[in-house]
Amino acid sequence: MTKTRKAREELLERIKTMKANELLPRERDLALELGISRSGLRQALSELENERVIYRVRGKGTYVSDKQISKRTFITSFTRDMTERGLVAGTRVLHRAQALASGEVAQDLDVPEGTLIYSLQRLRLADGEPMCIEHVQLPAELFPELLRQDLDTSLYDILQSRYGIEIAFTRQTIRAVVATAEQRRLLATGRTAALLEVTRINFDARHRPIERGVSIYRGDRYDFTFNTNHQN
Amino acid sequence: MTKTRKAREELLERIKTMKANELLPRERDLALELGISRSGLRQALSELENERVIYRVRGKGTYVSDKQISKRTFITSFTRDMTERGLVAGTRVLHRAQALASGEVAQDLDVPEGTLIYSLQRLRLADGEPMCIEHVQLPAELFPELLRQDLDTSLYDILQSRYGIEIAFTRQTIRAVVATAEQRRLLATGRTAALLEVTRINFDARHRPIERGVSIYRGDRYDFTFNTNHQN
DNA sequence: CAGTGGTCTAGACCACTGT
DNA sequence: CAGTGGTCTAGACCACTGA
Predict the structure, then answer these.
(1) How many CB pairs under 8 A join A and B?
(2) Which CATH code, of 1.10.10.10, 3.40.50.300, 3.90.550.10, 3.40.630.190, is assigned to A3-67?
(3) N or C: which end of chain A has fewer CB within 10 A?
């Protein structure tokens, strides 16, 4: 645990007890109080500012954000997403197979055409109701024996705990599409349903593609919320 | 222009001439070369890392990212968005009026119900074809005489150049909806069209809501791409 | 004017990588 | 082991805010 990290935790504790828009002590005092240099403190504060836990005003001071504003950055994991919405995530594996990468999949995963991949199709449920159809591809080389794992849970938990893979960032493309007959059947929607099609590629810290997939969500039950920073 | 900023620019110049995954000089040498301290250089590098222009590997060095990966963070401005796609943005103002904030609008803008706002409805075009219907609300107090401006251009350019307002971050919620008859008429889509409904609130650096709006995009012509960092 | 956050420095030491 | 990026420090000075 670095000192900056520790300062960050202590700051979060302190902020929890404060109201929105309340003023924090000046940096020089906070640093003294937390037993850290001002530079170290400033790094911790900068992280919290990026996460919108606080905001800083030059010449005035550092303030606590509205709780409302700070949340929702991370998405990606269906299980976590549903949990945050107060729903219980469920999974039905529709199909699992080895396959050879081609076309868009090979391009997204940055592997030559014909590379061995795992392909996984799952129906994801929220409180027992169909929410989304998921089609995932991963390079087989990185995940030996993946298809023998229990795939009824969070794929990202498996990648992390069993293969030690950490996702560093995600690129997503969202479209609106009209449901096909097959999709209507699986998702149990009405005749003319609009669906949210999310195509995502997950990368590790070295910018290597780790996993890609397409998720098709019911438009009447799902929305997608996120924040964007416009620094500079 | 700060030294860090200058270093950043010079680094970008240098990176432009390099290939993907090429190794940059070590930090100590780069700092010397750019006439800056290592700390200052590291801050510039950290910015570039966040923007995915470079990536760093401990014990090895700092590398140039694939050009492919770095782009697409900023969205929000329709005009800029279309320009990046190689399309010409156009605008037809459908409606402009003063109004009183109520319900969701008052809540999103964080003003009491009954506060005076400006309301603006525009049809946005790409290469002359309808792309999106936009419905925007802003607190009148912040933007005197707004309705007298030329609203056929980028609203964000007006906010910045005429009112000196800088947007610091954006919160967006995306849904898929089926087009109503009115929307089909305005957007010139077919009978059963899926649309992308984007609700956004723009905040300044002090976390004050500056503007909110709903944009309804044609599902067959538009997609929405963005990146998410999962630091920590 | 005093008080705040923002920038910058030179240097020390730590943690990880690959030979 | 030598070489890399990562953390941390103490202190100086700048730029902005509001009384």
Answers:
(1) 135
(2) 1.10.10.10
(3) N
Q: Which residues face B125 on adjacent strands?
A: B90, B130
CA pair distance A80, A85, nearest whole angstrom: 9
Task: Check: CB of residue A200 under 8 Å from CB of residue A215.
Answer: yes
Residue A226 confidence class, pLDDT cut points 50, 70, 90: confident
Answer yes or no: is A50 CB < 7 A from strand C. Answer: no
User: Which tens digits make up the pLDDT trace of A110-144?
Assistant: 999 999 999 999 999 999 999 999 999 999 988 88
- What tens digit of pLDDT does each residue of A96-107 get? 999 999 999 999
**Closest nt to A60 (CA→C1')?**
C4
Q: Average pLDDT of chain A?
A: 90
Rounded Cα distance, A205 and A75, in Å = 17
pTM, rounded to two decimals: 0.87
Q: Which residues contact A191 (CB under 8 A, 6 or more apart)?
A: A184
Do B3-67 and B70-218 have matching folds? no
What are the sequence ranges of the domains in chain B?
A: 3-67, 70-218
**Which of B42, B75, B228, B231 should one mutate to test binding to chain A, selecting the residue with the greatest count of A CBs within 10 A?**
B228
How confident is the model at residue A204, as a pLDDT? 87
> The tokens of A232 are what?
């500079």
Which residues in A lie closer than 8 A to residue B206 (C-beta atoms)?
55, 57
- Cβ–Cβ gap B228/A170 under 8 Å: yes
Query: Which nucleotide lies closest to A23 by the C1' atom and the CA atom?
Result: C4
pLDDT over 70 at B20, yes or no? yes
Angstroms from A55 CA to nearest CA on chain B? 6
pLDDT given at position B163? 85
List the A28 CA – C10 C1' distance (angstroms).
21
Which superfamily is assigned to B70-218 in CATH?
Chorismate lyase-like (3.40.1410.10)
| B88-137 pLDDT tens trace | 999 999 999 999 999 999 999 999 999 999 999 999 999 999 999 999 99
CB-CB under 8 Å, A73 with B206: no
